[in-house]
Amino acid sequence: MQIIQSIREKGAAMLIAFIALSLIGFLLMDAKQGNNRLFSSASTNIGSVNGSVINQDEFSKKVRQMEAQEEQQSGQKPSGTRSAQIRDQVWNQIVAEKSILCRGR
Fold first, then answer.
1. Do residues 46 and 56 lie in contact, with contact meaning Cβ atoms separated by under 8 Å?
2. Which of 33, 50, 54, 71 has the most beta carbons within 10 angstroms of its beta carbon?
3. 5 C-beta neighbours (distance < 10 Å), count
């Protein structure tokens, strides 16, 4: 009985140490890659197509333009579902444009 109790006590401490080391390792590995937003927010690239970068500012600007156009046409702001559709539409449009530009090179 005493052996089982000592294994439980040491096992709990070892398990806590293992979890802590795993979390630290995960954070360090993520920081080493450099493409994260946890330690730096310098990167504004949200994607790339055949090496051509898609920038967050470019995407947001086009989404705002499409939402403004939608608001002018319908007279009201787009709903949450319609906003998601607009974002998808803009994303697909940018990817198509970048794909065509990459083929032309």
1. yes
2. 54
3. 9
